[in-house]
Amino acid sequence: VQLVESGGGLVQPGNSLNLSCAASGFAFETVAMSWFRQAPGKEREWVAIITSYGGIIDYLKSVEGRFTISRDNAKNTLYLHMNRPLPEDTATYYCAKKKNNAWYGADQLSGYDYWGQGTQVTVSS
Questions:
Q1: Cβ(96)–Cβ(114) under 8 Å?
Q2: In what order do the strands lie in the sheet with 67-72?
Q3: Distance (Å, rounded) from C-alpha 14 to C-alpha 41?
């Protein structure tokens, strides 16, 4: 199993950024996928989840309305569109493979069995 994030970088507040996560080595279309983030000195925090065919999507309250999670099962790729990012969104962003297709327990790290290496996002003017 491999999860490889890309698309991070420096972005100004109010602009947008698109993150991608290329998945391989498993049946991507059968499991839920999430984005997490971790800022320096803080615990890893769940950001968003999407079930296998996008039937259920949920977000951390502080990003709801600004971030959009999506997936392309034909390309085995997970996305996170970050619209109007804020300085407090600065973190390393990770994609994670859930052990099943359930949306509940989305914020529990124990519910995930594989993680990407992360991509750094810095929001600053």
A1: yes
A2: 2-6, 16-24, 77-83, 67-72
A3: 25
pLDDT (tens digit, 9 = 90+) per residue, 104-120?
999 999 999 999 999 99
User: How many C-beta neighbours within 10 Å does residue 58 have?
Assistant: 17
Rounded CA separation 59/81 (Å): 12
As a whole number of angstroms, the distance between CA 12 and CA 34 comes to: 24
Position 14 confidence tier, pLDDT thresholds 50, 70, 90: confident
Give me the amino acid identity at 52. Answer: S
Torsion, CA 54, CA 56, CA 62, CA 68, rounded to 10: 10
Give the chain as a 3 state SS string.
Answer: CEEEEECCEEECCCCEEEEEEEEECCCHHHCCEEEEEECCCCCCEEEEEECCCCCCEEECCCCECCEEEEEECCCCEEEEEEECCCHHHCEEEEEEEECCCCCCCCCCHHHEEEECCCEEEEECC
